[in-house]
Design goal:
Elements (H helix, E strand, L loop, with lengths): L22 H10 L5 E4 L7 H11 L6 E5 L5 H7 L3 E4 L4 H12 L10
Length: about 120
């Protein structure tokens, strides 16, 4: 949350966060709707964000985009398995995190090409 702040792009409303600590609460919040993007920690235990992401993709329709924070770049294959639309490795680079969030939240016509 500190890496993203509240104002990421002029075409987006201010970011609002819902911070939760357990898998059942994540699932309940996404099932209730109103969440535009889920950012899950892939390194949590006992239920990791990667497994939760996969479960959400199976159970929530429509499921919002999901980003997972992974322990290292080499774990990108696990993020792919989870069906998350984006993965950002630790340590979190705020610029990369912001670009990925914008890619998931902005319509393609409003996105700038990567530089």
């Amino acid at each position: 949350m500190a890496a993203l702040g509240t104002t990421l792009h002029p075409d987006l409303p201010p970011l609002e966060y819902v911070e939760v600590a357990t898998a059942p609460v994540v699932i309940a919040n996404l099932d209730a709707g109103g969440i535009d993007l889920a950012i899950l920690d892939g390194e949590t235990a006992p239920a990791g964000g990667l497994g939760i992401a996969r479960q959400l993709k199976d159970e929530i329709d429509p499921c919002p985009p999901i980003m997972v924070l992974i322990g290292r770049a080499d774990d990108a294959w696990l993020a792919s398995w989870s069906r998350a639309e984006a993965a950002v490795p630790h340590p979190v680079d705020p610029m990369r995190l912001g670009r990925e969030v914008l890619r998931l939240l902005l319509p393609p016509a409003q996105q700038r090409p990567a530089t």
